[in-house]
User: Fold these one by one.
Assistant:
Number 1:
Amino acid sequence: MNVLADTGNGFLIFDGNEESVGSKENDPCKLRLTTPIYPDGGGGGVVSFNASRNPGTIQDGHNQLEMGFLRVEQSESVRGQQGNLRGELNVFLNDGSGEGDAAMVRAFALECDRITKIHPNLVQSLRNVLGIDGSGPAGSPDHMTSPQGRFQTHQQEDGNFVTYDTSTTPWTAVWSAWTGRIG
């Protein structure tokens, strides 16, 4: 184990192929990635998950193959607004077609209260898993109902999930995967 830093509050160590950042207090440790917000966006940072081109050797990012990354940045809905810290988490994954940016696909993105992007293939896959794709056995559900029967959640054609309160006439939408709480 190689201790790189040890303070009264926390530590940073390397042990074999692992890096550990730890807190000695009742406060979670933090790794801060900082970027300015410019008129076209920014803020946040990226954590990249890679495969080594040459196993067993020290390599910088140019000698690694990117499999996926998590990017947190200023939300597209407020892009470029100085001082607006509304964040968006984006999940990018390599689609297997090769290396570099052309092979990285945004699988989904979300803000604190809504899903802002979901890849169309994921929507279809989710429909298949839930049995609401129309190809399942007869009687496959096209919605979910709460145990008391008051609420129903439906997947719309655009992939959005919407929950309705069925005690009202007409039914009232109370929650949406894309917009969060309604009303």
Note: The first strand starts at residue 2 and ends at 6.
Number 2:
Amino acid sequence: MDRALRGSHSNTNDIVSLYRIAKSWGIASCRNKCWTRRLVWRATKSAGEPRERHTDAAQNYVGVPNQNRFPNFLSLDSRISKDIQVNPKYAVRLSVSSFNLTNHFNPEALHANVADPAFGFFFGHRGRRFTADFDVLF
């Protein structure tokens, strides 16, 4: 059995738009005569983006922009796939992807209107989720 294990790992700490992001990703593959397995992962952590500006009931801006921040962001995503060679010309790829494996609360938006009864609450969280894919490769 011919095995090839390729690993790729990158860890960067950059200041982008005044907030810190750390990303890590990698690929591991295993191959034999008629099928290939592949595992891909991505981990992302950031110190939180600056919040949007607050508005009043008339939609006028109030307060100092970028004074507050979203909560810390943490996500671990992965995908495992298997390629099956059907004939020399065609192959089938079966894969399962997972998103936010840590199930960390990563809000997408904020109630920013000071007249809103829910002012200051974060919403739009996407919890842990999975998808399955079927692809034909030619």
Note: DSSP finds no helices and ten strands in the chain.
Number 3:
Amino acid sequence: MSSPGKLLEEVLLANGLRMLIFDQSRPMVGDRWLAKLSLQVPVEIRPDHLAALAPDKVSVDAFIASTGGIITFEHFKQRNFVDYQEVAQVVAELKAESLNATLPYISNSGFQARFVQKQYRDWCEKQRLHQFSSAPRTTQGEKN
């Protein structure tokens, strides 16, 4: 998760999750700013979210341990080289655009389970790649 920035708003979603809206704007050069908005939705991982994937308990426990039991959905919008005088207005526009684009998705009742499942599949793939990349290699002509 990125540096939070200034908390603008906390919204309770229809599915019981809470969305945090942060202003992460910062100066760039002279009077020009990077106007940046971040929407973050912390999601608690529960084993029942993964039941549809039928994973083994050891993998689920390792996934939960590696994430600390919470994963965060993040959505960013930003604009470069914004005049200092216009940063607040641009951030408000970014907020409206972001909410319009993401609110139907993240407030859906199935969002939490689908997001956990996606993160779990990604985590499993990284574990497989790590195992493959750290496995001893043989060269041509070598016998195992």
Note: The radius of gyration is 20 Å.
